[in-house]
């Protein structure tokens, strides 16, 4: 009794014969569409698939055009006459011209696909078919493309579009004759249909049935069997002809079932709920069609779809299952329709429609259905095993062990029973093996190993106390090899070999000698050679049968022929001996010949690199379970046994599978060749031999065209123009304006099988010739800002290697008007006109330019002539300066040497005054030249401007006395310091006062008034020079400041001016930032008023000390003293002057005090300088061969003579000339003519400065020679000499010759240069540096006197002491004591 109870608890059996309804879920799977997906109404009355491939669905609330993705809805709109006349659709058909006829409650509407408009003129449209009107109730298109029409007045007609021929069929059934005889209601055709041989079957409203031949339209069969049933007179009789050519008649909206005419036995077979053979579940039949596999599909109201198998005389039912979304939408079927592809469309009363095709869901799914007790008990399956009967053992992931009886479609479940050791040890089953003794071995997760003989479970568990027990309770793999050895792979402790005789386990630990390399065993197979392949988390270990040793294969990043990953998940061998390895990084194939692996991954088309399971079908193609779908790895061509060409297809839940991700180990190939793949939501069984991919036979159509996101309808105007004359679906070319260059094209492939697997490729030639893949969800392509031009849009679909026909749309974007050919013609004409005008303008401009150029050249010539004149006068003026110097200098000497009361002195003074006046005119001419070439610079200096002007005015006191002119100078203030250019202000005052005195007669008046005024909060100096002279005419007053202007003078006066004095005055006033003006009255005198802004000195400015004046008399007195010294002691002076008289004069004047050497030019002068090394050089600037500037530059850059001072003489008084002279190294600059006493004083000062410089060097040497900061060439020379001596200071043999060699000059030049700079000979220079260093050592070191003597280069200490005493007046020892006491 207890054993029976245990058995009852052990086996939980859910068994029983599978119901027919259950089977439909696996074999017939539908896709549902309803109002939730965009359908206009859930009551679907009829279907039609047009020649383009669109499916039209007539509902109780509008017409729908379906492209597989979305619905385009047409409804009745009272305000729009181009819409449907009624929204309730009864029937649909397509005429030969492609127009869609929509049968509504208010008659026919005709839809024009090209204009997308509804035409309500049905009679007019009927005339295209040769009919007088649209009074017909049934239209049928046969397989030949001809149309059968039943006209209510004309009867049965046949329309042949090829010849547009309408044939009337004259057939009167016998019942019609009897009806006329009995004067009963006339029988009419209710429905007709055609069989596969072209025969026409006609059913009348009273049930009479007839068949007309396809050739002569004569009756070949007539039957009144149904008529005799007295089903009544009804226009709802319908006839269907099956594949055997036998008719089925039913009456819609009646509870009569259907009737099948058995032509062979001439028997009317009832098909209803009470029928003995063909028993329906409902008698309200709404539609009958031919289904797949020759079955008859009968749509019923509230009974679903009854499928009749004529041969088996059996009926199965397809009904709605609320728990299964792949069943029909509803059991109330209103319409059934089968299109050209074999797809069946079923319209329901309240839930839309559904469609079925054998390839919509390629896989049947076996899963748990809560509402079906006989379904799979548990969805999540891990592993499969097949028994000898072909039934399947299933290991569930928490559902225990399940036995699937395929024949009876039943399941039996075995689960763990707590407390019962004879039950399954754990409900998580991860591995299964049915060994050769039909013992089922079950590996569990933390439940160890189980064996099941069909009655009892036996457990093998890990026992820590028993080393021969199972090593780990997580048994992931079980494998029996050809020697019937049982291998157990665990999840975390390696591999076990089970001895079934002794019930012991031999352990193979990772990294043990001759063992595996990982403790995780993922897969095991045995190849044809008997070698056992073990997949692990660390590659593959192969146990060689012959050698009995393990060989390891792993991943090597540096070896492309190694495994793609060490993480091995699955293993399989095909019939050709290829070993396939699934890893976490792709599929691998082992090439035995080359002992390497070939890998396949994402780049080869795999949806994911993680290969969870591998199964090989009978064609030796692979089926791979991945985390992103089931992959069919179809090999098209092989090179030997290795794949050369292959194709990859991926399937997922859309194809009927349990999902996209599959479980590890959940795959098996059955002996029948079928494959099983499972996952978390059930499993699928399929036969690859029967596998057939649906070819790509649907073309792409364009479904919408948008401009700026607005859909464009046919004949709709945009910017006043029609864009689409026809529907975009039939349009091949579009022309757009330039402003319409942002558009969107929507497309769809009318493939209702797997729309979500369509891969759309598109391109726009003319923009980008590359093909791109479109988003399958939106199927839209938008182009923005396209340039005007011609484009070709192409789109196609691709599935695998198959590609559909391209849909082509030509698009032309017109350019704007300004880019049209007409515009370009206008542009060309405009350009030509513009060029003509431009040519005329250019010619005129050239003429004008030529004229201007001529005038410019003439002006340039005049300007160049003026410049030549000015240059001539300037050069002449420069030449005047030398003779003027020869005149003025001796005159000044004579005047200083003659007594004031001498008559000769007055004559000499007159000569001196006129020479000075001539010099002033020369200077004025040079100032004018500066103004002409804009070389005048404003050089302000701080000074007492009132005192300065007053001093200049006082210089004219002598002239006022001589001409008896009353001259006054009045100032408001005695003193005022400001910034002004003293030279230019003196010229201003000189010109104004000289003109005043010149044009004022004797006993006249000249006055100077100076005052400070305030103008706009700024102080200005007002200087007024007034005279009582002849005055200036009013018309000439505006020109007095113009250059070279001279007005007419009275006859008794002679104009001695040049006309440039006042012009220079005005320019100098402007340089000061001031203004000058004149007021004059002819005969009464003139007044010149000058305003100068007073510029204060900058903050912190310190007034410069006044220049020390030279006492000329004292200097002359000293110069006249007789030279008592020897001529050899006089300083040596070189005179370089090309004017012989001037050079002779200077020699006579200077030879009393200096040794004079002469040179007529710079070249000879340089040679003399190098020869005699003079103390001073006096040179003229302008000389032949080598001028004074070049001579100065040569001297100052030659180390041998760079110490010699140079004084330059020149007649050019320009500031730039002086600056150039100073930049070349000149020490002084004297302008001709000059005062002799000033020249002599300059020469003495330069000689004195040279002596002071010499003393300064000596002082530096005494202090610390090595600390001199050098700047000039002479200083650099001395510094280098000191450095050379210091470098050899300890060398007693260091001589003057060595020093001159180090200094790169001869001994003579070294002697002269050192003597000139330091006053010391080279020997003295070396000795004094040695002594200075010795003194420093005596002060700061503890060396003895002898040691110091040797260190500073003296080889005799006594001689050193004597020389030291001569220099410092004490002996070295006394010097040290003296310094020590001082400290």
UniProtKB/TrEMBL annotation:
Pfam family, one: Reg_prop
Enzyme's top EC category: transferase
Lineage: superkingdom: Bacteria
GO terms, molecular function: ATP binding; DNA-binding transcription factor activity; phosphorelay sensor kinase activity; sequence-specific DNA binding
Protein name: histidine kinase
Chain positions found as 4-aspartylphosphate: 1180
InterPro entries reported for this sequence: CheY-like_superfamily, HATPase_C_sf, HATPase_dom, His_kinase_dom, HisK_dim/P_dom, HisK_dim/P_sf, Homeodomain-like_sf, HTH_AraC
Taxonomic lineage from the root: Bacteria, Pseudomonadati, Bacteroidota, Cytophagia, Cytophagales
Keyword rRNA-binding: no
Catalysed reactions, semicolon-separated: ATP + protein L-histidine = ADP + protein N-phospho-L-histidine
EC number(s) from the headed UniProt entry: 2.7.13.3
PROSITE patterns: HIS_KIN (PS50109), HTH_ARAC_FAMILY_1 (PS00041), HTH_ARAC_FAMILY_2 (PS01124), RESPONSE_REGULATORY (PS50110)
Residue ranges of every copy of the HTH araC/xylS-type domain listed in the record: 1279-1378
């Amino acid at each position: 009794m207890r054993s029976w109870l245990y058995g009852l608890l052990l086996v939980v059996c859910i068994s029983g014969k599978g119901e027919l309804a259950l089977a439909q879920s696996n074999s017939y799977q539908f896709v549902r569409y309803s109002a939730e997906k965009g359908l206009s109404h859930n009551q679907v009355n009829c279907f039609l698939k047009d020649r383009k491939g669109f499916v039209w669905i007539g509902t109780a609330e509008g017409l729908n055009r379906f492209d597989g993705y979305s619905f385009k809805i047409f409804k009745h709109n009272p305000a729009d006459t181009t819409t449907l006349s009624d929204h309730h659709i009864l029937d649909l058909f397509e005429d030969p011209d492609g127009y869609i006829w929509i049968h509504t409650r208010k008659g026919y509407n005709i839809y024009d696909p090209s204009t997308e408009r509804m035409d309500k003129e049905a009679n007019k449209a009927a005339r295209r078919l040769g009919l007088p009107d649209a009074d017909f109730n049934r239209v049928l298109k046969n397989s030949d493309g001809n149309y059968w029409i039943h006209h209510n007045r004309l009867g049965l007609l046949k329309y042949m579009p090829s010849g547009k021929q309408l044939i009337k069929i004259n057939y009167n059934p016998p019942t019609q004759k009897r009806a006329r005889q009995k004067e009963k209601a006339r029988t009419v055709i209710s429905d007709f249909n055609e069989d596969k041989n072209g025969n026409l079957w006609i059913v009348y409203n009273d049930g009479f049935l007839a068949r007309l031949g396809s050739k002569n339209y004569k009756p070949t069969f007539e039957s009144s069997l149904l008529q005799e049933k007295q089903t009544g007179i009804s226009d709802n009789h319908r006839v269907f002809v099956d594949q055997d050519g036998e008719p089925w008649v039913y009456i819609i909206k009646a509870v009569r079932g259907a009737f099948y005419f058995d032509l062979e036995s001439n028997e009317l077979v009832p098909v209803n709920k009470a029928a003995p053979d063909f028993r329906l579940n409902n008698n309200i039949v709404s539609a009958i069609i031919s289904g797949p596999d020759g079955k008859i599909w009968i749509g019923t109201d509230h009974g679903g779809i009854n499928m009749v198998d004529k041969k088996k005389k059996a009926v199965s039912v397809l009904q709605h299952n609320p728990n299964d979304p792949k069943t029909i939408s509803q059991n109330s079927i209103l319409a059934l329709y089968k299109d050209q592809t074999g797809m069946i469309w079923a319209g329901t009363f309240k839930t839309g429609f559904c469609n079925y095709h054998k390839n919509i869901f390629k896989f049947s799914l076996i899963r748990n259905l809560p509402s079906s007790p006989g379904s799979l008990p548990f969805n999540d399956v891990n592993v499969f095993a097949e028994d000898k009967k072909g039934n399947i053992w299933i290991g569930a992931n928490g559902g225990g062990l399940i036995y699937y009886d395929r024949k009876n479609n039943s399941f039996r479940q075995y689960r763990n029973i707590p407390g019962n050791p004879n039950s399954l040890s754990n409900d998580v089953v991860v591995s299964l093996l049915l060994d050769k003794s039909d013992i089922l071995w079950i590996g569990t997760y933390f439940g160890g190993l189980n064996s099941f003989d069909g009655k009892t479970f036996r457990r093998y568990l890990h026992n820590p106390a028993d080393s021969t027990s199972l090593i780990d309770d997580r048994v992931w793999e079980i494998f029996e090899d050809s020697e019937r050895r049982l291998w157990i792979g665990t999840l975390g402790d390696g591999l076990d070999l089970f001895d079934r005789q002794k019930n012991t386990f031999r352990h193979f630990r990772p990294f043990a000698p001759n063992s595996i390399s990982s403790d995780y065993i993922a897969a095991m197979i045995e190849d044809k050679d008997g070698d056992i392949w073990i997949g692990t988390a660390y590659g593959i270990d192969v146990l060689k049968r012959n050698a009995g040793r393990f060989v390891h294969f792993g991943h090597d990043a540096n070896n492309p022929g190694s495994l793609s990953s060490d993480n091995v998940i699955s293993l399989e061998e095909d019939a050709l001996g290829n070993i396939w390895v699934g890893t976490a990084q792709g599929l691998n194939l082992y090439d035995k010949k080359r002992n390497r692996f070939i890998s396949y991954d994402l780049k080869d088309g795999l949806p994911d690199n993680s290969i969870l399971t591998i199964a090989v079908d009978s064609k030796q193609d692979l089926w791979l379970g991945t985390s992103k779908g089931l992959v069919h790895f179809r090999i098209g061509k092989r090179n030997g046994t290795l794949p050369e060409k292959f194709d990859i297809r991926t399937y997922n839940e859309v194809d009927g599978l349990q999902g996209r991700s599959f479980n590890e180990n959940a795959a098996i190939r059955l002996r029948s060749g079928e494959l099983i793949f499972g996952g978390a939501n059930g499993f699928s069984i399929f036969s690859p031999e029967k596998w057939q991919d649906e070819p790509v036979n649907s073309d792409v159509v364009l479904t919408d065209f948008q401009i700026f996101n607005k859909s464009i309808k046919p004949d709709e105007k945009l910017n006043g123009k029609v864009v689409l004359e026809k529907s975009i679906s039939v349009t091949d070319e579009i022309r757009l304006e330039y402003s319409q260059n942002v558009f969107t094209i929507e497309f769809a492939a009318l493939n209702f099988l797997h729309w979500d697997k369509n891969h759309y490729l598109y391109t726009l030639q003319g923009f980008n010739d590359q093909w791109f893949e479109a988003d399958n969800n939106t199927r839209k392509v938008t182009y923005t800002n396209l340039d005007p031009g011609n484009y070709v849009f192409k789109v196609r679909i691709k599935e695998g290697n198959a590609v559909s026909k391209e849909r082509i749309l030509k698009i032309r974007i017109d350019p704007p008007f300004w880019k049209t050919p007409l515009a370009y013609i206008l542009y060309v004409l405009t350009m030509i006109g513009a060029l003509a005008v431009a040519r005329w303008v250019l010619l005129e401009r050239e003429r004008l330019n030529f004229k201007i150029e001529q005038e410019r050249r003439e002006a340039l010539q005049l300007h160049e002539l003026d410049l030549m004149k000015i240059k001539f006068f300037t050069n002449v003026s420069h030449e005047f300066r030398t003779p003027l110097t020869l005149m003025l200098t001796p005159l000044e000497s004579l005047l200083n040497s003659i007594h004031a009361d001498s008559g000769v002195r007055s004559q000499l003074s007159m000569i001196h005054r006129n020479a000075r006046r001539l010099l002033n005119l020369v200077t004025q001419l040079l100032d004018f030249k500066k103004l002409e070439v804009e070389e005048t610079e404003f050089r302000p200096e701080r000074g007492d401007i009132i005192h300065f002007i007053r001093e200049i005015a006082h210089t004219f006191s002598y002239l006022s006395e001589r001409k008896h002119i009353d001259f006054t100078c009045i100032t408001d203030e005695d003193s005022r310091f400001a910034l002004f250019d003293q030279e230019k202000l003196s010229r201003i005052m000189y010109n104004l006062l000289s003109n005043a005195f010149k044009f004022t007669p004797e006993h006249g008046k000249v006055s100077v008034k100076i005052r400070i005024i305030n103008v706009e909060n700024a102080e200005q100096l007002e200087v007024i020079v007034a005279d009582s002279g002849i005055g200036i005419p009013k018309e000439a007053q505006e020109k007095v400041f113009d250059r070279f202007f001279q007005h007419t003078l009275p006859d008794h006066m002679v104009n001695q001016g040049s006309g440039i004095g006042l012009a220079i005055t005005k320019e100098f006033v402007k340089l000061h930032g001031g203004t000058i003006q004149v007021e004059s009255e002819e005969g009464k005198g003139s007044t010149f008023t000058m305003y100068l802004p007073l510029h204060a000195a900058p903050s912190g400015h310190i007034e410069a000390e006044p220049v020390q004046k030279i006492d000329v008399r004292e200097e002359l007195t000293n110069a006249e003293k007789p030279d008592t010294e020897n001529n050899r002691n006089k300083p040596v002076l070189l005179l370089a002057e090309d004017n012989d008289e001037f050079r002779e004069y200077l020699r006579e004047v200077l030879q009393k005090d200096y040794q004079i050497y002469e040179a007529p030019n710079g070249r000879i002068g340089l040679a003399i300088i190098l020869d005699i090394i003079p103390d001073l050089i006096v040179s003229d600037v302008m000389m032949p061969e080598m001028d004074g500037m070049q001579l100065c530059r040569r001297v100052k850059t030659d180390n041998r003579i760079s110490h010699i001072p140079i004084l330059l003489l020149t007649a050019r008084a320009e500031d730039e000339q002086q600056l150039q002279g100073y930049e070349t190294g000149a020490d002084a600059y004297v302008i001709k003519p000059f005062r002799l006493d000033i020249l002599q004083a300059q020469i003495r000062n330069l000689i004195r400065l040279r002596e002071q410089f010499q003393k300064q060097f000596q002082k530096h040497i005494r202090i610390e020679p090595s600390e001199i900061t050098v700047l000039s060439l002479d200083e650099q020379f001395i510094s280098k000499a000191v450095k050379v001596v210091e470098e050899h200071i300890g060398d007693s043999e260091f001589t003057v010759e060595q020093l001159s060699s180090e200094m790169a000059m001869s001994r003579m030049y070294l002697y002269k240069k050192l003597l000139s700079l330091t006053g010391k000979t080279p020997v003295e220079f070396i000795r004094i540096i040695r002594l200075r260093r010795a003194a420093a050592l005596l002060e700061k070191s503890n060396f003895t006197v002898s040691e110091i003597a040797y260190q500073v280069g003296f080889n005799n200490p006594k001689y050193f002491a004597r020389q030291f005493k001569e220099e410092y007046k004490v002996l070295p020892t006394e010097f040290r004591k003296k310094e020590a006491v001082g400290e």
